[in-house]
Specification:
By secondary structure, the protein is an all-beta fold. The chain has no helices and eleven strands. The strands form two sheets. Strands 2, 4, 5, 6, 9, 10 and 11 form a seven-stranded mixed beta sheet that branches.
């Protein structure tokens, strides 16, 4: 089983990035998937979740700015991030929700928001 994130980078405040997470080794469409981030020196923060059928949820800190989506045919998870703020700087992980716990994680992709 593998989760591989990509799409991070350096962006100016107010800019946009689209993160991707490629999955393999399990029936992707059967699982809730999540984005979780960790800012420098801080703990893990849940960002967003999406069900296999496309129902979504967001942390208040990103609601209205970030959009989670998935393509079950391609086994891909996405996070569109708009109106980025310096406080969004973090290592972003995709994580599979296996019966209420995040049982598999990717290696993370770095997002840095700075002028």
């Amino acid at each position: 089983l593998q989760l591989v994130e990509s799409g991070g980078g350096l962006v100016q405040p107010g800019g946009s990035l689209r993160l991707s997470c490629a999955s393999s080794g399990f029936t992707f469409s059967s699982y809730y998937m999540n984005w979780v981030r960790q800012a420098p020196g801080k703990g893990l923060e849940w960002v967003s979740a999406i069900s296999g059928g496309g129902s979504t949820a967001y942390a208040d800190s990103v609601k209205g700015r970030f959009t989670i989506s998935r393509d079950n045919a391609k086994n891909m998870l996405y996070l569109q991030m708009n109106s980025l703020k310096p406080e969004d700087t973090a290592l972003y992980y995709c994580a599979r929700d296996g019966l209420g716990m995040f049982d598999y994680w990717g290696q993370g992709t770095q997002v840095t928001v700075s002028s």
